[in-house]
């Protein structure tokens, strides 16, 4: 048997704690090898394009508050400081209306485009809209000032026409996109990647659909444009596509027809929790079986890429949990973090390089609530994930309870391992003893206390709980202290509590915990 080093969590049934049971078992993290790897900037947020008068809810406008990339006040301190707190974070600009957005630049387009207008019966019930270059300048200044890494979604429908049902045909009119890219280069704006189209692919297309063959032809043209315009650049922007709901047959055909050297990243969208107004929505956030179902999508996309495009990478280009703009009662509350942080952990296990949360601000699912300009619990969870969980992903075997969701990564920027625990139960706590088990001769467990970490080696613990124990609270506590911004919009310090590495870890009911264990040998993390 090969040599094996494992980090072991030993649990045993013990009496009730504060009226709840505390249960046991064992969790094993294999630190001999990694199972996947993310991008250094795995956490990502989106800026959508909806105008403020998008009102699909009765008497409730989801995007009221000027929270889209077209009208957001980019000088707001909280917006700038929230992005800067990550030091480096990806922002994906795009959404449904990107395929009706033209750019006020280039022959035939400059001076001819106007703001979006609600137009019943038109595609997405809106007229064609306009991105003015003054706004493009402002956006790029914002990106530059905050250190954002930019993915911009391009209009893939320009030049096409509707035929039957939701099918659109015809070659892509690329002249407006070429003018925008040329303008971007001339102004030295740094765009990391250009994404082609939004939700136009396969069986789950939204509003309009384009065949894989036509999509491939159009993306090959985009590759020609980028290669030509960025000819003198050492590093060219990536091409990202199709930004759609995963359809295995469509994605496979698309990759075969584009071939190598065209598409760098395959993006897919996830809204697996259901409609934002579904009265049963809240129960899915604490249902472990339901949360796990989406793993099939991650696995199948990974297989499609390995088979057809081993040079490519998988991204979640947009994920908001609940669709229809999110839930007005759930998306900004603590319970949403059960889904969101679980998705970050799960996606990383399948070599997902980037995970873009819908949205930074806007809709009900913004990690900054547009009506209050306050960060939600999801914002702080994402910030901790970004700061603590490194790109290398470790295998974890959890036979304790399906209610205890668990993930392990090599720690970011330092030695050791960081673990993410999500306790979906409100009736059960988990008490965990951490041991470093090394048995080079047989690979079997050695539960000897002598193999524990040094007693003077502290670990860091970051426990997230809802205010007053209410999972629908919009206030999150870190180690018992509420996380609140200052009047100037400064993000609070996220400070751990320190525990001896050989002491037990307590994962309370309905809580989330990041545990940083720095002092043990982890060959996979070297």
TrEMBL record:
This protein's record includes keyword Aminoacyl-tRNA synthetase: no
GO MF, one annotated term: beta-glucuronidase activity
InterPro entries cross-referenced by the UniProt entry: GH, Glyco_hydro_79
Family: Belongs to the glycosyl hydrolase 79 family.
Signal peptide: 1-19
Function field: Endoglycosidase which is a cell surface and extracellular matrix-degrading enzyme. Cleaves heparan sulfate proteoglycans (HSPGs) into heparan sulfate side chains and core proteoglycans.
Protein name: Heparanase-like protein 1
A Pfam family assignment: Glyco_hydro_79n
Keyword set, alphabetical order: Glycoprotein, Hydrolase, Lysosome, Membrane, Secreted, Signal
Domain of life: Eukaryota
GO cellular component, as recorded: extracellular region; lysosomal membrane; plant-type cell wall
Topological type in the membrane: Peripheral membrane protein
Main location as per UniProt: membrane
Name of the coding gene: LOC111432361
Keyword Transmembrane helix annotated: no
Localization annotation: Lysosome membrane; Secreted
């Amino acid at each position: 048997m090969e040599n094996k080093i494992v980090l072991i969590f030993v649990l045993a049934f013990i009496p009730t704690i504060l009226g709840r049971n505390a249960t046991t078992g064992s969790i094993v993290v294999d630190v001999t090898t990694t199972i996947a790897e993310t991008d250094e900037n795995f956490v990502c947020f989106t800026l959508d394009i909806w105008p403020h008068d998008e009102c699909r809810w009765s008497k409730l406008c989801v995007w009221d508050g000027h929270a889209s990339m077209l009208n957001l006040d980019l000088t707001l301190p909280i917006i700038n400081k929230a992005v800067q707190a990550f030091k480096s974070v990806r922002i994906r600009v795009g959404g449904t209306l990107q395929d009706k957005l033209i750019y006020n630049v280039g022959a035939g387009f400059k001076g001819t485009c106007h703001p979006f207008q609600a137009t019943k019966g038109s595609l997405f019930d809106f007229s064609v809209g306009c991105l003015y270059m003054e706004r493009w300048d402002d956006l790029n200044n914002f990106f530059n000032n905050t250190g954002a890494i930019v993915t911009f979604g391009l209009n893939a429908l320009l030049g096409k026409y509707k035929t039957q049902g939701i099918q659109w045909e015809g070659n892509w009119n690329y002249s407006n996109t070429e003018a925008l890219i040329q303008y971007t280069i001339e102004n030295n704006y740094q765009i990391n990647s250009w994404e082609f189209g939004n939700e136009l692919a396969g069986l789950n297309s939204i509003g309009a659909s384009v065949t894989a063959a036509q999509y491939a032809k159009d993306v090959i043209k985009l590759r020609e444009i980028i290669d030509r315009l960025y000819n003198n650049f050492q590093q060219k922007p990536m091409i990202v596509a199709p930004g759609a709901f995963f359809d295995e047959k469509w994605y496979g055909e698309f990759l075969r027809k584009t071939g190598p050297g065209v598409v760098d990243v395959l993006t897919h969208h996830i809204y697996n929790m259901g409609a934002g107004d579904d009265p049963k929505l809240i129960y899915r956030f604490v249902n472990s079986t339901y949360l796990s179902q989406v793993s099939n999508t991650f696995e199948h996309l990974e297989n499609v890429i390995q088979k057809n495009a081993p040079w490519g990478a998988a991204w979640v280009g947009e994920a908001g949990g609940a669709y229809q703009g999110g839930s007005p009662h759930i998306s900004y509350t603590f319970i949403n973090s059960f889904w969101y942080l679980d998705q970050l952990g799960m996606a990383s296990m399948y070599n997902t390089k980037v995970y873009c949360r819908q949205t930074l601000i806007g809709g009900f699912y913004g990690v900054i609530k547009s009506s209050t300009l306050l960060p939600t619990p999801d914002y702080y969870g994402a910030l901790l994930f970004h700061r603590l969980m490194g790109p290398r992903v470790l295998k974890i075997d959890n036979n304790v309870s399906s209610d205890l969701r668990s993930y392990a990564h090599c720690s970011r920027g330092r030695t050791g391992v960081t673990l993410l625990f999500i306790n979906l139960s409100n009736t059960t706590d988990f008490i965990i003893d951490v041991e470093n088990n090394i048995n080079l001769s047989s690979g079997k467990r050695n539960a000897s206390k002598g193999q524990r970490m040094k007693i003077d080696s502290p670990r860091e613990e970051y426990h997230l709980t809802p205010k007053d124990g209410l999972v629908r609270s919009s206030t999150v506590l870190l180690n018992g202290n509420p996380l609140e911004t200052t009047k100037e919009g400064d993000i609070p310090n996220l400070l751990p509590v320190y525990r001896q590495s050989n002491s037990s870890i307590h994962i309370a009911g309905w809580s989330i915990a990041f545990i940083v264990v720095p002092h043990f040998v982890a060959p996979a993390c070297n």
